[in-house]
Amino acid sequence: MTATACTACGGTRLLPFYRVEAIPVHSCLLVDTREAALAFPKRDLELAFCEDCGFIFNRLFDPTVLDYSPDYEETQGFSPRFRRFLETLCDELAERHDLRGKTVLEIGCGKGEFLVALCERAGCRGIGIDPAYRPERTASPAMDRLTFIRDLYGTDYLHLAADADHVCCRHTLEHIPDVSGFLGLVRRGIGERRGVSLFFELPDMERILVEQAFWDIYYEHCNYFTAGSLASAFRRAGFRVTRQWKAYDGQYLMLEAEPAAASFGSSGDVARTREQVARFTAGIAARLAQLRGEAEAWRRAGKTVALWGSGSKAVGYLTTLGLEDEVAAVVDINPFKRGKHLAGTGHAIVGPDDLSGLRPDVVVVMNPIYVEEIAAELRRRGLAPEVTALT
């Protein structure tokens, strides 16, 4: 079904601008066999820009095809670079919101790494909720202050927000089709209590548009926010935005808020986003052709190519470009992914040590922020391929 109204503000002035057909409905589910990966369910995606609030969403999104189970493997916690980011973020939030001795609710906690680190470093209590949580993966001296619930956040869990001093939600809002409904649930759970703080983190759509980073557009993400459209959604839901910034080399959009009266009106960046959408639309075909040509040139030259990073970026890169045997291997440092297969393309996921036998000529790094640590891993194994990053 094609949505005819904005899922953030209800506006009907929608501008469709980017379509990809038959892409996997999940990018992070662990798939056991190549056959199952090739047969993985697929759907079409069409991004639409709301002329009223600046929000961008997949207007063909069907939430019934998704399965956020314990087989969903989203963690980035095996990267030293990412762990440093997470620890610094925990320390900043703990200090800014004086979290010691308080209760923190994390909606969409994944495997729990962030909440565990926050409770360990801030001395707070933590409640995490996520259907993909795996209890056997959590070991912490703060376990007596941690509670995890393996479920989706909904009306049955309003009491969790009612008891929390701080509510955080990282890389989850982009997966939730009813933006206003979800934020309304959080606001309803908090009620009229004052002194409650919120922290949300999600991908920054402005960067995706400006860089034409199509590999960051995939089916699981039904929502794409700029700073303005995100702030507008929070204000409509009854929150006052207290701080916004970008982090992780500008890849992540961060927002802090507190309960307030609802206020309406469009975001301040609608016109700028409209221009960015126009430039993205005008240039994306050439961008796709350029990267397809690059992969074809490697193939013609007989070069062995490996991708480093088996997450959503890899699935988006491979499926959108239609690459198959142009890529010999997909590498990941997450041991839980090894021996599994990428949804849609069927590529087997291998570990860094497997590259010693493959000896790739080219390693394509899915996220440029990891180039330095990946280059170090390659050197450690006596490998010196050309290393190039998606930018």
TrEMBL record:
One MF term in the entry's GO annotations: methyltransferase activity
Ranges where the C-methyltransferase domain occurs: 274-379
Entries under CDD domains matching the protein: AdoMet_MTases
Any single GO BP term: methylation
Keywords, comma-separated and alphabetical: Methyltransferase, Transferase
Pfam families per UniProt: Methyltransf_14, Methyltransf_23
Protein origin, superkingdom: Bacteria
PANTHER family in alphabetical order: PUTATIVE (AFU_ORTHOLOGUE AFUA_2G14390)-RELATED, TRANS-ACONITATE 2-METHYLTRANSFERASE-RELATED
Protein name per its UniProtKB record: Class I SAM-dependent methyltransferase
Species per Swiss-Prot/TrEMBL record: Benzoatithermus flavus
